[in-house]
Amino acid sequence: EINIQNLSKVYKTNNGSFQALENVSLYVKNEEFVSILGPSGCGKSTILRILAGLEEPTSGSVQVSGEEVKGPSAKRGMVFQSYTLFPWLTVRENIEFGLKLKGMKQKERKEISDRYLELVGLERFADSYGKELSGGMKQRVAIARSLANNPEVLLMDEPFGALDAQTKQSMQQLLLDIWKKEKTTIVFITHDIDEALFLSQRIYVMEARPGRILEEIDADLQLFQD
Ligand code: ADP
Ligand code: ADP
What we know:
Strands 6-7-8-3-9-10 form a six-stranded mixed beta sheet, sandwiched between helices. The protein has a four-stranded antiparallel beta sheet with strand order 2-1-4-5, covered by helices on one side. It has helices at residues 44-52, 91-101, 106-119, 135-148, 165-182, 193-199, 222-225; strands spanning 2-13, 16-28, 33-37, 59-64, 67-68, 76-79, 153-157, 185-190, 202-207, 212-218.
């Protein structure tokens, strides 16, 4: 689970400092799908980068699974808007990258990459390279690569923001299916309220200047869908 208490972030700038986050507190249960919704510049990415360990809090506490975040870790999978596949590796090699780093043997790696290739529907593209894939397919690889490391949480920063409407819709459905199957804890950043309502169980709504949480919305409409 994720527990953020009284998180503030002040960036140093050329002409002084800028408070990007003020007293942000939020909680995400295990297996929960939570969105952080707000306008550009309200500090969504800052929260995610701090959760990922890519940026330090100015003050406050940021815990994942009961431990204070100190630097990056494969325990927290990241999916960004811009595709971050390694262009010199095939789809399968991208998915196996973290497992190889951990020293996992090839046979075991292949079992895992087979499983995640199937989960995202890319079995036929295992040997393709990123440049041969569409935007939606690249994001499917990025999701598979993150999940292959069996992360405690999946952190997603506007992952479908650059996709056309139709691809975006099918990726949203795919992500929901994956979440239900894998029971992954997901924190999803977006500025699109429809996307947040469609995907998540709860939404933290933020405002800018300074970045703060305005309210928390219960968005679990699954009661009505089943
Ligand atoms: P969002 O993801 O909601 O668009 P960000 O977290 O990217 O917001 O940024 C929040 C605010 O902090 C913005 O005004 C942005 O310009 C500023 N900011 C982000 N990163 C830095 C940085 N490294 N240095 C200075 N200001 C930053
Ligand atoms: P996003 O697409 O999530 O809004 P940005 O374009 O705001 O991201 O930020 C991209 C990178 O630029 C980040 O690493 C962020 O820290 C940095 N950055 C953003 N705003 C500023 C700023 N005002 N000053 C310096 N760095 C910034």
